[in-house]
Amino acid sequence: MGLYLGIDFGTSGARGVAIDDKASIQAEVRYPFEDLPVEVMPSCWQEALFALLGQIPEGLRREIGAIAINGTSSTVLLVDAAGKPIDAPLLYNDARGSSVLDDLRSIAPPNHTVLSATSSLSKLIWMKQLPSFSEARYFLHQADWLGFLLHGYLGISDYHNALKLGYDVEELKYPEWLQKLQIPIQLPRVLPPGTPVAELRSEIADNFGFRRDCLVCTGTTDSIAAFLASGAKLPGEAVTSLGSTLVLKLLSRTRVEDARYGIYSHRLGKLWLTGGASNTGGAVLQKFFTNAELVSLSREIDASEASELDYYPLLKAGDRFPINDPNLPPRLEPRPANPVEFLHGLLESIARIETRGYELLQQMGADKLTRVYTAGGGAANDTWTAIRGQCLKVPVIASTYTEAAYGTALLAMGGRGDEGDEGDEEVGEKVKG
User: Under a CB-based contact definition with an 8 Å cutoff, are residues 117 and 149 in contact?
Assistant: First the structure.
């Protein structure tokens, strides 16, 4: 029996899922994150990664043939020649890049994906002013760095993570306008998601009892991993990830890109995964309610009755999609005394933002929405599902699998494929060179 391990680094914790050749789950492991200062996050990520490997039952570890990792899109860090972080990472929702957008607009094509305060490229340009920048040798995404910890090769990424760095996913190369920036450090070499990079470092394989020939593959982003897990396959089918934030992905025959609205498209085989990410979502709900309250109060909501409250639920100013405005103010007033009414207003308001997002994608030329699969913690809330169905006016169903780690395990399985050891070593050598 061959097994494949997918590891998901989300905002609230890390998870691992091991699947067999028939894509059936054989093991699931978790590592919750504490609320830590951003400066210590890389060491926390590293601790979580190795803790997850150790949690997998020993007998299964010997069967794992390939590993892939997903991370939060546009969570980035600078590392030195040895791969050690030289400063605090910038997280997915860090908008410090807004200060360099005017400079970026003079170079990047109009309405390009990178023209966002939270894009990887705007973060990189902002980072150039850091005193520590002179020590930097590589710019990496979260998934790139975690992959490096396993295979030992620096400067490798995938074209899902590299999209917001400006990588051209249609031509599969860095565009000329990006090269004109003359960035003084190494940009990642970009490979297709799920490409074998190299075997697991021998000391890790021996320490944890993995196969010496276990391959580490390039990864993806958390929301694409959730899409891969969902079961959605046809143009017009979409996945909404209701986690800490709200992420929409609509499978389309047409590529749609427009930075004015925070819209971008990822390559997915011969189709395009078009969508955007809003800062609204579960993190706002958890500011006001415990998980137990969310469950009990949701049961008291009459989903067939529309709420009279109109919010734009954000933890702080700024959103990325469907309104791309780093200064957009949160709207959480008036707040009724009855917590059931307040929660109803929040759930319906987030559903309206989701609906507005899908309407915008279709107006921009994406395929007509036919069905929405739901991933993330919000998928378990039946009341919210009913409210969303009324807003979206298409069937809303739970994803086949809701864990992004499952989608990443599928990526690892595809990466292992039927290639012989010779072919896998050749990929590793190319990367090494």
Answer: no
Supply 426's token pair: 């050749």
Q: Can you read off the two tokens belonging to residue 127?
A: 């980072």
**Beta pairing class for 138-141 and 371-375:** unpaired
Backbone angles phi, psi at 96, to 5 degrees: -60, -20
Tokens of 315: 């933890």
Over its C-alpha atoms, the chain yields an Rg (Å, rounded) of 21
* pLDDT surpasses 70 at 429: no
Residue type, 316: K
Give the residue among 204, 82, 72, 191 at the shortest CA–CA distance from 151.
204
The SS3 of residue 199 is: strand
In one letter, which amino acid is 432?
A: K
Asked whether 368 and 236 are in contact (CB, 8 A), the reply is yes
Which amino acid would we find at residue 91?
L
Q: List pLDDT tens digits, range 311-326.
A: 999 999 999 999 999 8
Q: Residue 78's closest CA among 141, 161, 167, 159? A: 141
Q: SS3 for 111-157, per residue?
A: CCCCCCCCCHHHHHHHHCCCHHHHHCCEEEEHHHHHHHHHHCCCCEE
Q: Which of 423, 433, 432, 431 is nearest to 213 (CA)?
A: 423
Confidence of residue 418 (pLDDT cuts 50, 70, 90): very low
Instruction: Tell me the pLDDT tens digit for each residue of 217-238.
Output: 999 998 899 899 998 999 999 9
Sign of CA dihedral 97, 102, 105, 111: positive
Q: How many CA atoms lie within 13 A of 281 on its CB side?
A: 23
